[in-house]
Design goal:
elongated, 45% helix, alpha/beta, six-stranded parallel beta sheet
Length: 339
């Protein structure tokens, strides 16, 4: 009888040991999986607002923002993307609808979007992208110490560098022409800077303002008839919408055109010194990532993004009879499009 009890006890002990081992193995397996599995995607809700998707540069910036945020782990985040399509009333409606406290952050691409959100005094942080003159636009008081619950990136246009590059490519230019919309503060600041630089060099210039993209073609014709032998297109969403018509007129009249963005060169202008549009979007996203990781907006300085390369339209150059410059000639890496 005692032997039987001992056998039963031993059997129970053996079963318990097996169960214990299996449980331990199961637990170890789970821990190993947890240690090698990537961090769970971070939940969040972000708004992204564009003044107009017709500006291809803005769309590339938006894509750069989303790609960078996903790289940082926000793969399952909600990205609420809205395009005001150039309509100020629609822009106001979009911004007001996003100011409801449900967003972790709002990205604004361009000056008008940023001004609309900042002027609301929103509690939701604003991360602006490609605002040429943030202080002048009053979306921030100090680039190094953000004070309006907003920070981001500036694509301040290096107009003097673009003009000097223009003389290296087309040295016989005598009179510059400018087309811009007074409603576009980025464009106004860029043109003012360009004209101040030309004045300092005693170089002649003329300008025509437009209200809609439909006015761009006639504005170009006016500048050409006024003796302008080169036209500069600033970072202007309205002019960008009509730039293909401008480019066609200028090609027919053999007038070189310089621009503020690579997108405008792709649309038919000759050249620019450009930032990488997806790249500036990514740099904007990096600031939001700092905030999401616990940093205060006031501790995340705004940043002026510098020149990445020269974008040069080979097809337009061929039409105008202009040779493609070398890196040694202009001092920048050259990205040739429309060869």
């Amino acid at each position: 009888m005692k032997k039987s009890i001992k056998k039963i006890t031993a059997l129970i002990f053996a079963v318990l040991m097996i169960v214990s081992c299996l449980t331990a193995c199961s637990g170890n397996s789970k821990n190993e999986n947890e240690s090698t599995t990537p961090e769970t995607a971070k939940p969040a809700k972000f708004g992204i607002v564009l003044q107009t998707g017709a500006n291809g540069a803005f769309v590339d910036m938006k894509d750069g923002i989303i790609e960078k945020m996903k790289e940082a782990g926000y793969t399952d985040a909600t990205y609420d993307y809205k395009d005001a399509q150039g309509d100020p009333a629609a822009l106001t409606t979009i911004i007001n609808s996003m100011d409801d406290g449900t967003y972790d952050a709002i990205f604004t691409v361009g000056t008008a979007c940023t001004q609309t959100l900042v002027n609301l005094g929103s509690q939701t942080p604003c991360f602006f992208c490609a605002v040429s003159a943030p202080v002048e636009a009053k979306v921030i008081t100090d680039m190094k110490a953000p004070d309006k619950n907003a920070t981001g990136t500036s694509n301040a246009i290096p107009v003097s560098d673009i003009i000097e590059m223009g003389y290296k490519i087309t040295p016989d230019v005598k009179k510059w022409g400018f087309i811009y919309a007074t409603s576009q503060i980025n464009a106004v600041n860029t043109v003012n800077d360009a004209q101040d630089y030309l004045k300092s060099k005693n170089i002649a210039f003329d300008s025509v303002t437009v209200e809609t993209s439909a006015d761009v073609k006639s504005a170009a014709e006016t500048l050409i008839s006024n003796g302008c032998d080169v036209i500069f297109v600033p970072n202007d969403a309205i002019v960008q919408d009509g730039v293909k018509a401008l480019a066609q007129i200028c090609s027919e009249e053999k007038i070189p055109t310089y621009a503020s963005s690579a997108t405008t060169v792709n649309s038919g202008c000759l050249a620019t010194l450009a930032i990488d549009d997806k790249g500036i979007g990514a740099k904007t996203a990096e600031k939001c990532i700092e905030y999401m990781n616990g940093k205060a907006i006031s501790e995340i300085p705004s940043e002026v993004v510098g020149i990445d390369y020269c974008t040069f339209n080979g097809g337009v150059a061929a039409t105008l009879g202009i040779e493609t410059p070398t890196e040694n000639t202009i001092g920048y890496q050259i990205q040739v499009v429309n060869k």
